[in-house]
Write a structure and sequence with these properties.
The protein is α+β, with helices and mostly antiparallel strands. Helices cover 19% and strands 28% of the residues. The strands form 2 sheets. Strands 5, 6, 7, 8, 9, 10, 11, 12, 13, 14 and 15 form an 11-stranded mixed sheet that branches. It has a 4-stranded antiparallel sheet with strand order 1-4-2-3. The chain is elongated, with a radius of gyration of 23 Å.
């Protein structure tokens, strides 16, 4: 038998989800049977599979020792360097200015150096994250951006902050703005573009259409021209919807591909100009809550901006405020 006292980072998890995290080798069917037959109890009583756990709850698991075999921990995040450009940090969240070229999560090609790995390593070194003391939670990202896009990414230091951030992003109560350089000068200096986007998983590319079907998703992209010169324009972009490659594909669809974009633009020509990475940056973030922000309410109304965006300064002499 093994018992677990629920901490704030485990609170609100369903009982079955919690058991999967603390006893991953236990077969699912057997776990459900053990819950039904009271071999897994909450506060000494029979509980439902869907029971939501609360801080202080005692979960007792009368399970064979073989399912509790402890393996010496190996923390992959320790292989990530501790190199971060921190925009803002407090006890609940971390805003990081992600460099272009860095992937946010591990994938089949890269798992050693990732943004989440760097963040977890950083918090581990600070003593704010100890995997041995956590039963189910790991510091996590609330949003993500493409490998070759730079800018602000939000990380949560605890489960409650992560839940709130995800809810606020979903309900569009966190405003994110991008800077980009596009080829050409749009006829309209400000416009909200609408279209329908379909993703090809095999090619990791999206395709736009002017007609809705059962495979594509509606997208809306709002842009504003800030400056133009040498047949290039610096624009600010607001995503009304947030889809894969949305800014890159949407601007390319109206004849204004991003500078340095190898998937939707003219990379060969851009490389000759010295630009081999897409000129796209998530440069500003505002917490704009219209519902209660819980433990993050103190962030409401605050705006955070990166210190410098290389292409805005290099090509247009545009200084961030």
């Amino acid at each position: 038998m093994k018992s677990f006292t629920i901490t704030k980072n485990d609170a609100s998890l369903r009982l079955d989800k919690f058991i999967v995290k603390v006893c991953p080798t236990l077969p699912q069917g057997l776990m459900y049977k053990y819950i039904r037959t009271k071999r897994i109890k909450v506060n000494g009583k029979r509980a439902e599979i869907s029971t939501r756990l609360a801080v202080g709850d005692l979960v007792e698991a009368y399970i064979n020792d073989e399912f509790f075999v402890e393996i010496a921990p190996k923390y992959d995040f320790l292989s990530s360097p501790v190199r971060l450009n921190i925009v803002y940090e407090d006890e609940n969240i971390l805003l990081v200015d992600k460099e272009q070229g860095l992937i946010v999560h591990p994938d089949k090609n890269e798992y050693r150096d990732t943004l989440i790995g760097r963040i977890q390593h950083y918090l581990y070194n600070k003593g704010e994250y100890d995997p041995k003391k956590e039963q189910s939670f790991k510091p996590a990202l609330a949003n993500r951006i493409d490998r070759n896009t730079g800018g602000i990414v939000i990380a949560a230091k605890n489960a409650e902050a992560l839940r709130i951030l995800c809810d606020k992003i979903k309900s569009r109560e966190i405003d994110k703005r991008y800077l980009a350089v596009i080829h050409g000068v749009p006829k309209q200096k400000s416009q909200t573009l609408e279209g329908y986007l379909e993703k090809n998983q095999d090619k990791n590319k999206v395709y736009l259409s002017g007609k809705k079907n059962d495979r594509n998703l509606t997208i809306k992209t709002k842009y504003k021209v800030i400056a133009s010169q040498n047949n290039l324009s610096l624009i600010e972009v607001e995503l009304i919807t947030g889809r894969t490659h949305q800014i890159r594909a949407h601007m390319a669809s109206i004849g204004h591909a991003l500078l340095g974009d190898g998937k939707y633009g003219k990379l060969a020509a851009d490389k000759k100009m010295g630009f081999d990475k897409q000129a796209l940056y998530s440069y500003k973030l505002t917490f704009d809550f219209n519902t209660d922000g819980g433990i993050l309410q103190y962030l409401n109304g605050k705006t955070f901006t990166v210190k410098k965006v290389w292409f805005a300064d290099q090509l247009f002499g545009y200084k961030l405020k």
